[in-house]
Amino acid sequence: MNSIIELGHKTLRKKASPVADVFSPEIASLIDHMVEELQKKKGIGIAAPQIGVSKQVFIVAPEGLSAPYDSLDNGLVVINPTIICRTETVTYEWEGCLSIPGIRGYIPRQCDITITYTNCHGELKKEHYSDFTARIFLHEYDHLMGVMFIDHIENIQTDLITDGFYKMLSEDDA
Q: 101 Cβ partners below 8 Å, 6+ apart?
């Protein structure tokens, strides 16, 4: 399987296919590879399209936990998700992406959501997420729809910066 692919790869702009068999060896191998890539990159979320596999699977490390974490046991492997409710309230936050290294965008999102999905144990879940965790879910869900975080940028002149500049802004706030 691929390492993390970057913006420009056609898989990132394609709507991912639903997973038919959660327990297939292909999906188990995909999840293992995604966990490995997430750990390598010290990320907080990864979607199957980011490693070149157009399947509706993503992994989230909620509350900003860094890898390794116990996501497989706690159902943080998300398969065939559906967003069933979003609030109208929009919040803005800086986001980055493993598939667009070195860049951050100031992204509007409705960060109070209810979703349904199947976890890696085959259980159908309905859960509510808000704030940062909801933002991660929405970012990864976008990958399954062929959408990148940069597609949400409202003003390219003020809302797109490098990671270096973001780090300087964060240090100024501390």
A: 6, 163
